[in-house]
Automatic annotation (TrEMBL), chain A:
It comes from Drosophila willistoni. Pfam families: PSF1_C, Sld5. Belongs to the GINS1/PSF1 family. GO terms for cellular component: GINS complex. Required for correct functioning of the GINS complex, a complex that plays an essential role in the initiation of DNA replication, and progression of DNA replication forks. GINS complex seems to bind preferentially to single-stranded DNA. The keyword Nucleus applies. Residues 140-190 form the DNA replication complex GINS protein PSF1 C-terminal domain. Keywords: DNA replication, Nucleus. This is DNA replication complex GINS protein PSF1. GO terms for biological process: DNA strand elongation involved in mitotic DNA replication. Residues 34-124 form the GINS subunit domain. Gene3D superfamilies: 1.20.58.1030.
UniProtKB/TrEMBL annotation, chain B:
Residues 86-172 form the GINS subunit domain. SUPFAM superfamilies: GINS helical bundle-like (SSF158573), PriA/YqbF domain (SSF160059). This is DNA replication complex GINS protein PSF3. Component of the GINS complex. Residues 10-61 form the DNA replication complex GINS protein PSF3 N-terminal domain. Required for correct functioning of the GINS complex, a complex that plays an essential role in the initiation of DNA replication, and progression of DNA replication forks. GINS complex is a core component of CDC45-MCM-GINS (CMG) helicase, the molecular machine that unwinds template DNA during replication, and around which the replisome is built. The GINS complex plays an essential role in the initiation of DNA replication. Belongs to the GINS3/PSF3 family. It is found in: Nucleus. InterPro entries: GINS_A (IPR021151), GINS_bundle-like_dom_sf (IPR036224), GINS_Psf3 (IPR010492), GINS_Psf3_sf (IPR038437), PSF3_N (IPR055221).
UniProtKB/TrEMBL annotation, chain C:
InterPro entries: GINS_A (IPR021151), GINS_bundle-like_dom_sf (IPR036224), GINS_Sld5 (IPR008591), SLD5_C (IPR031633), Sld5_GINS_A (IPR038749). Residues 78-158 form the GINS subunit domain. GO terms for cellular component: CMG complex; GINS complex. SUPFAM superfamilies: GINS helical bundle-like, PriA/YqbF domain. Its main location: nucleus. One of its GO terms (biological process) is double-strand break repair via break-induced replication. Pfam families: Sld5, SLD5_C. It is found in: Chromosome; Nucleus. It comes from the Eukaryota. This is DNA replication complex GINS protein SLD5. CDD domains: GINS_A_Sld5, GINS_B_Sld5.
Length: 191, 213, 231
């Protein structure tokens, strides 16, 4: 049936357990080919001025073409959504193994998005700026207890104090300054 | 941001619903459309035949179109008795149809007897109380997945319900304040660990694996 | 970008009210805040934040209030540098600053989330509005434009350039619109007579402080004019 390949694109994307499955170049190409084929058939039929009764066929093919487009664009839209999430969760640099799943225009998309978001965060409040990727939870205390999950090395606090973050060491640190390390999985917030 | 089910052009859920097929009766001879009918012997679609058409095509058809008559799917007829007896909470709706309500909603205009609309409305009305109850009682950690019991929309409500309930409990116990590792980073780390483990295995059998590298 | 934070959590804080801390600062300071007190600014922002998280559509931006608040915060930070880190006042003040920062960040994140979802819808709506009524702040407008272009470019490169030309109406079909009829929880700030509820022009008078569940669209103007707020 028309549109089945386009539907499979979405089904695979939804079923995959990966953050972002590899860009389905081949699937995409097949859908584009189907769209082109349907379009050309319809143009040919319209030009040959077939009988009125084949209008239904024309109409059916048109619906199939729109359907294919919709599935394909929904596939791209969903990938956009996930790529944007990468910026919020990993920061401006995508881990290499995830990057491999993206196609060139997607990397471009990520970089542009990352740039506009950064520009926006800098410009907020008459160019005084605010980092929206931190301050994610309502604060309850200034300091939190954290355990170090991996060797990180030296970490300098705002007041100039330098601490060594060694694997399995525990620290009592200002929440605001270590939030991003917790988010990146270097520290673990313990209570 | 408050989110409710409100499908748009890119909604994957809506695309899934509209992928469903519906039985239709052919009313007139349709030139060169025999490909829709697997049992057809000619190039054309003959009147009187029944074909399965995808919802994405049906919804482009006028309700009063001269070509096809949409048949009410059996599932709605089957539920009818339970609806009358107010026994719908026992139905495994998800097994019956994963998009019971949405699918029905799309078909309502084509249903000249107006039964589907009434059935889905009554079904939800009867089940919503039950949905509320199980959302309150199923704690997130206890992963009693009621997937086959619930239709897609119900399942979404159920997830939202249990999540809200868990948040509320956490708030009461004042333990909602922990900074968590970002979800994607966590997934990614787990994957990396798995990859590392399999690398170790590779090292222990260097001879067998090297060859493939 | 999934904000699960609930405004209610913040109210649980047992710390002294921020407003006092800020006001205290202000008294020491000169009156560069003119007519409006820091407390008032914070109140406005808090209401805007709670309204924004509960409304299905993007509400009016609060650039002026945010600007004031951000300057106030950095000003307070400046002054606190002179205080001993273990001074009780320093602890209280930093806690308040963290709270303000959280509110502002959460508020702006919520707006960005809406802008990202309803990009084209919001751009189109704003294009028809007078400069003073625009919902997007200039920075947000720039972000929305860039995002829209960025998505179009990606679509074009991978797919749309290989497709037959678009037909009329297709672009409109793709615009994602908010569901303005979503139900919201509402609290009336003042007495509001004769609010139309439901389809048959049924009317209800809202008493000050009374709470209701109602489709957003029917009360959108009350939120806009601050006669009621979402909860």
């Amino acid at each position: 049936m028309f549109g089945d390949k386009a539907f499979d694109l979405l089904k695979d994307l939804e079923r995959s357990s990966q953050t972002i499955p590899a860009f389905d170049d081949d699937g995409l190409r097949q859908v584009l080919e189907e769209i082109k084929a349907i379009f050309e058939e319809n143009v040919a039929q319209a030009q040959s001025q077939g009988q009125a009764s084949s209008y239904t066929l024309l109409h059916f093919r048109h619906a199939a073409l729109q359907r294919n487009k919709r599935c394909l664009l929904a596939y791209l839209y969903e990938r956009c959504r996930r790529i944007k999430a990468l910026r919020w969760e990993f920061g401006p640099i995508i881990p290499d193994d995830i990057k491999q799943a993206l196609c060139e225009p997607e990397i471009q998309f990520f970089n542009n998005y990352s740039k506009s978001l950064a520009a926006y965060m800098r410009a907020v409040g008459d160019s005084q700026g605010i980092d929206l990727t931190s301050n994610l939870r309502p604060p309850k205390s200034l300091y939190i207890e954290v355990r170090c999950i991996e060797d990180y090395g030296k970490f300098e606090l705002d007041d100039g104090e330098v601490i060594h973050l060694k694997k399995n060491s525990q620290h009592y640190l200002p929440r605001a300054q270590v939030e991003s390390l917790v988010r990146q999985g270097i520290l673990q917030h313990i209570s | 941001m408050a989110v409710n089910y409100f499908p748009h052009y890119y909604s994957i859920e809506d695309i899934f619903v509209t992928h469903e097929k519906v039985e239709c009766k052919v009313n007139t001879k349709l030139q060169r459309m025999g490909f829709l009918d697997a049992g057809s012997e000619t190039d054309h679609l003959e009147p009187g035949r029944t074909v399965n058409l995808p919802l994405w095509y049906i919804k482009e058809l006028k309700v009063s179109n001269a070509y096809f008559t949409v048949c009410v799917p059996e599932i709605y007829k089957n539920v009818h008795k339970a609806v009358c007896e107010a026994e719908t909470t026992h139905i495994e709706l998800g097994r019956l149809h994963p998009y019971f309500y949405e699918f029905g909603r799309y078909l309502t205009p084509y249903d000249s007897n107006h039964v589907i609309g009434r059935i889905i409305f009554e079904t939800l009305r009867q089940r919503v109380r039950y949905l509320l109850d199980i959302s309150k009682n199923d704690v997130q950690s206890r992963s009693s997945k009621p997937e086959h019991r619930l239709d897609n929309i119900e399942a979404n409500l159920h997830v939202a319900g249990t999540k809200t309930n868990t948040q509320y409990i956490n708030w009461l116990q004042m333990c909602s304040n922990k900074i968590c590792i970002s979800q994607l980073v966590e997934e990614h780390q787990k994957k990396r660990k798995r990859a590392d483990c399999s690398d170790d295995e590779n090292d222990s059998h260097p001879a067998s694996k090297r060859a493939t590298l | 970008m999934s904000d699960t934070e609930t405004p209610a959590e913040l109210n649980l804080s047992t710390e002294p009210d921020l407003a006092h801390a800020v006001e205290e600062e202000e008294e020491e300071d000169d009156d560069d805040m003119e007519q409006i007190t820091a407390q008032k600014v914070l109140e406005i922002l808090e209401t805007a934040w709670i309204n924004e998280t509960n409304a299905p559509e993007l509400l009016q931006h609060q650039s002026d209030m945010l600007e004031l608040m951000i300057s106030q915060v950095s000003h307070m930070e400046e002054q606190m540098r002179d205080l001993d880190k273990n001074d009780f006042r320093a602890v209280v003040h930093s806690m308040e600053l963290e709270r303000i920062r959280y509110i502002m960040a959460s508020y702006l994140r919520c707006r960005l989330q809406k802008i990202e979802t309803f990009t084209q819808y919001i751009i189109n709506q704003d294009a028809a509005r007078e400069p003073d009524d625009k919902r997007l702040s200039p920075e947000e407008a720039k972000f929305a434009q860039e995002l829209s272009q960025n998505v179009d470019e990606y679509f074009h490169k991978v797919a749309t350039q290989y497709m037959p030309n678009q037909q009329r109406g297709e672009a409109e079909q793709r615009i994602i619109t908010p569901n303005l009829m979503s139900h919201v929880f509402l609290k009336a700030n003042v007495a509001v007579p004769a609010v139309i509820v439901g389809v048959d022009d049924e009317e209800v008078d809202l008493a000050p402080g009374s709470q209701h569940i109602i489709p957003y669209q029917l009360v959108a103007d009350l939120i806009q004019t601050n006669k009621a707020q979402l909860i």
